[in-house]
Design brief:
InterPro entries: Put_antitoxin (IPR003847). The protein is mainly α. The protein folds into two domains: 35 residues, no CATH class; 31 residues, no CATH class. The protein is 56% helix and 0% strand. The longest helix has 11 residues.
């Protein structure tokens, strides 16, 4: 896996570091675990259907507008 160098303020580093579950967990793993992956409307719809969460048409329309 390729790596990149990132500059963080001390405050940002401290906040990110507090999210580590163990001392061995890397900051990259923290970011991947904590930050959500951007998903398409179709992926969100599939997740909601699988979890049996149903939206009204108005809620679905608002969600699609928010995603766009």
């Amino acid at each position: 896996m390729a790596t990149v160098t990132v500059n963080l303020s001390e405050e940002a580093f401290e906040r990110l570091n507090k999210w580590k579950k163990t001392e061995e967990e890397s900051l990259s793993n923290v970011i991947l675990r904590v930050l959500p992956k951007n998903r398409t409307a179709e992926e969100i719809d599939e997740i909601l259907r699988e979890s049996e969460i149903f939206l009204t048409d108005e809620e679905a329309d608002k969600m699609l507008k928010d995603i766009e």
